[in-house]
Amino acid sequence: xxxxxxxxxxxxxxxxxxxxxxxxxxxxxxxxxxxxxxxxxxxxxxxxxxxxxxxxxxxxxxxxxxxxxxxxxxxxxxxxxxxxxxxxxxxxxxxxxxxxxxxxxxxxxxxxxxxxxxxxxxxxxxxxxxxxxxxxxxxxxxxxxxxxxxxxxxxxxxxxxxxxxxxxxxxxxxxxxxxxxxxxxxxxxxxxxxxxxxxxxxxxxxxxxxxxxxxxxxxx
Length: 220
Fold this sequence. Notes:
By secondary structure, the chain is α+β, with helices and mostly antiparallel strands. It is built from four helices and nine strands. The chain has a nine-stranded antiparallel β-sheet with strand order 1-2-3-4-5-9-8-7-6. Strand 1 (64-65) and strand 2 (68-70) form a beta hairpin.
């Protein structure tokens, strides 16, 4: 074999090796996986359950609210005292009295009926101002043990006994920062009637408030 022939063969072999290496490198490049596409978290398919009742239409409230079981109530649950009677007994203070807002509930063996008579007109869809209202709350205990847990009299500053009403009765004048409360609480059997006349702190003082509250208490 001549030297020129050997040189051509070595050159051809080198060319094949280069082509082979190039093919392998190209294959490795094309076989490498590309970066994974970015993904976004799927949006929840259901909305979270609301925890409040501000968006619930009237009549669709939950059965439980603030630890109490809401009970059905009708307007005739709060017919005593009547609005004309409130206006007559309270005079100028009760001149703007409105029909009662009714709320009934139960908890731990106690049935509660709250009748709130606003003492000034209330706009449509708005609640009575508890700081300018006559509130008549009736609480009935299922037995004496439950009644004893109430701790009567409740929420009174310098409560004083009142004679001639129920089995026991108390009166108090509660002076708060923004409100003055005239409160009468009467126990009769397993039922407690609490009458609260709440007025703005700068309102004129009420004459004979104890007698007026006693006249408005739905007793008997």
